[in-house]
Write a structure and sequence with these properties.
Number of strands: 5
Order of helices and strands: EHHHHEEHEE
Low-confidence stretches: none
CATH superfamily: 4'-phosphopantetheinyl transferase domain
Strand order of the largest sheet: 1-5-4
Radius of gyration: 14 Å
Strand content: 25-35%
Largest sheet: 3 strands, antiparallel
Mean pLDDT: 95
Number of domains: 1
């Protein structure tokens, strides 16, 4: 049974300006070390940061709680399997929220262009 669905769209230029202004202070508040390493390997890192930021926003929207309601953005990590398929790894309060709601599956899809990044998260319940 579907528990929730969330979608988000990020303006990559806006995110690039935020990163340019705040640098590692912003990155470390929002992204895991693994996410930072992954994004920085790419010529246009902001595109990949945008997709990951959209995934985090989509996840909290799917939960129905929004940002600032106990789940830290660093508790939500986007990883890729060996074939490049994105997935979410949840830590701390994000993991607790999933367990408390009996959510058994988290689905993630990402897409991006030079200008925009988007993500959708679908949560399945028992």
């Amino acid at each position: 049974m579907i528990y929730g669905i969330g979608i988000d769209l990020v303006d990559n230029d806006r995110l690039a300006r935020i990163i340019a202004k705040w640098g590692s202070k912003f990155l470390q508040r929002v992204f895991s070390e693994g996410e930072i390493n992954y994004c920085e390997k790419h010529a246009q890192a902001s595109i990949n940061y945008g997709a990951r930021f959209a995934a985090k926003e989509s996840f909290v929207k799917a939960l129905g709680i929004g940002l600032g309601r106990g789940v830290k953005l660093t508790d939500i990590e986007v990883v890729n399997d060996k074939n490049g398929k994105p997935d979410l790894v949840l830590w701390g309060e994000a993991k607790a929220q999933i367990e408390n709601r009996n959510i058994v599956q988290v689905h993630l899809s990402l897409t991006h262009t030079r200008s925009f990044a988007s993500a959708i998260v679908l949560l399945e319940k028992k």
